[in-house]
Specification:
single chain, mainly alpha, about 60 residues
């Protein structure tokens, strides 16, 4: 079985035609949601860090 670059490119093109690409609106909404989730996760981990630091400092009696 010989490798044919021309046949490979034809198959790639036909597979690419089957892809449903997101619209600009879908991409924008998804990007905004990613930023919102990153902000919420960073707030959550910041608050968790503060609480854990307070508890450990209290338990160890370190000032």
């Amino acid at each position: 079985m010989a490798f044919s670059p021309f046949k490979f490119l034809q198959e790639v093109r036909s597979e690419t035609a089957k892809v449903t690409w997101p619209t600009r609106r879908e991409t924008t909404i998804t990007t905004i949601m990613v930023f919102v989730m990153v902000a919420l996760a960073s707030i959550f981990f910041f608050m968790s860090d503060l609480i854990i630091r307070y508890v450990v400092t209290f338990l160890l009696g370190v000032h």
